[in-house]
Design brief:
homodimer; 113 residues; mainly beta; six-stranded antiparallel beta sheet; 10 strands; 54% strand; globular
């Protein structure tokens, strides 16, 4: 069993296509998580994730802040305490349209098992 | 894509062996999550989960409050912002040893796929 503050894990710049977005990989295969990974994202005001899709799902919990999640044909507001489920192949983008840092957990399956 | 406040999902009493513990199943197979489920637990002061083990892991994020997680041979404090990874077959129990409700996310894989 492991217990640690999320800030113990380094925040790194997120992938190409993102802006003002950093990610901490909190729970991964490296500590024995074989099925899915827990990441914590921090997105500054005006920041966004890439607008893209992929074959795996996202399970998201908004910890702090507010913004919009952009889909194929619409934008939906989110705020702290909201849950977001992005199904496989759904186009999606997270945007910080508020004045505070948005923090959210985003969990993804390990697909190759 | 689905976006909803966690409170939209009903809180139900947790399993036998737990006390003052309720669970909301936020993301499940019912909305298309085939690999793992997101649950949110609310544990009142003095409450606890069962002391048990099982063949699947837990990926936990503490949202609010403080308490202890009990393992085979030790207790470890946790507080808001902490991450807990319980490996398969690790004995574990979550206890609210603080004065406020503890809220935590606990994600589990779907094993039968």
């Amino acid at each position: 069993m492991k217990v640690f503050p999320y800030k113990d894990i380094e925040a790194k710049d997120a992938n190409e296509g993102a802006s003002k977005l950093r990610v901490r990989w909190l729970i991964t295969k490296d500590i024995g998580a074989k099925n899915f990974a827990m990441r914590l994202f921090e997105m500054e005001p005006g920041g966004h994730s890439p607008f893209h899709s992929h074959t795996w799902e996202h399970e998201v919990f908004i910890l702090e802040g507010e913004g919009h999640v952009v889909g194929e044909n619409k934008e939906t507001k989110f705020k702290a305490g909201d849950v977001v489920f992005v199904a496989p192949n759904d186009k999606h983008q997270f945007k910080n349209s508020g004045k505070k840092t948005v923090k959210f957990l985003c969990l993804v399956p390990y697909m190759e098992k």
